[in-house]
Design brief:
Elements lengths: L1 H30 L5 H24 L3 E3 L9 H5 L9 H6 L16 E2 L18 H18 L7 H7 L11 H11 L2 E2 L25 E3 L1 E6 L6 H11 L2 E5 L8 E6 L14 E10 L10 E6 L11 E5 L12 E5 L1
Parallel strand pairs: 7-10
Antiparallel strand pairs: 1-7, 2-8, 3-4, 5-11, 6-8, 8-9, 9-10
Helix pairs in contact: 5-6, 5-7
Length: 336
Amino acid sequence: MKFLAAILLLIVAVAMADQDEDSWNFYKFQFGRKHSPKDEAGRRRNFIARQRRIEKHNREHAEWQMGHNKFSDMSDDEKLALLGANPVIRRERLVSAEASLPVLDRALPASIDYRTDKCMQPIKNQGQCGSCWSFATVVPLEFNTCKKTGTAVALSEQMMVDCDTGNGGCNGGMYDRAWQFIQGKGGVMKSSAYAYTSGSSGLKGTTCKFDSTAIGAKVSSFGWTMPYPNQTVSMTYLQSDGPLPSAIKVLDSLYNYASGVYSDPACIVADENDVAHAVVIVGYGTTTATTTVPATPYWIVRNSWGTGWGLSGYFLIKRGVNMCNIESWTAYVRVV
């Protein structure tokens, strides 16, 4: 009997190894992965480990699903390079809390979704550079400038990476400091005049090439949504002031988010400064209850990891519980 059991285990192991190899080869084909012989074994191990986590999660959770993407064979260090939110301490944030809650002339709607608004620029990709903060900086400026002028505009993240010495380029930064820099500089340039290169060419911040003749937007004022964390306050600002940048804690599972409303008990944290990635809230809503999953309030969040990640570059995250600190770091900006 022991011999037969050993044979059976061997057969199962061989079958799993074959299945893993097929999955690995399909992944490389699907995502155009070509590795050197030196890197192949390590990349394959990363992928197989990720495959196991995805399978386990999707068996055990119905509220949101994981899937493979360009991050599935990356090392932990490579994924950490995609983060770059470096917030200031809370005392400094309180000093800037001068604005009061906007007074709306109508009740808050049940949902808001700016993803398809004509003033929302296409999803962008920060690449292997911790410049998420610069992408979060320009999204509301693009949106609000378009609303004011009636003309869509794409703004330069690279200008902040290269020129904003108050932030750290690919080593991280924060959108409030970037807005302050833009105010002092007289505006932010259009991306057509200052294209993004840090994530694709390996140029992680070069000599500043600021040109005042190519300015596409100017900052009038900005601030933190107060009081915080408060979903109603953030919803109010979202309606009155457009998309709201925020900073979040990132668990390893988020890299392979595929669909549904993201949540994790480990991402409800006591330390409000435990954040590492800048994103932008562009809407909210509530799911329809099913027999297996209750109705869940959510934020619609724009990321800067390209359209091949999540919901074509966006994700949903549970609203009203300060998931991953997202309701502690919402900020608004107004344009000239």
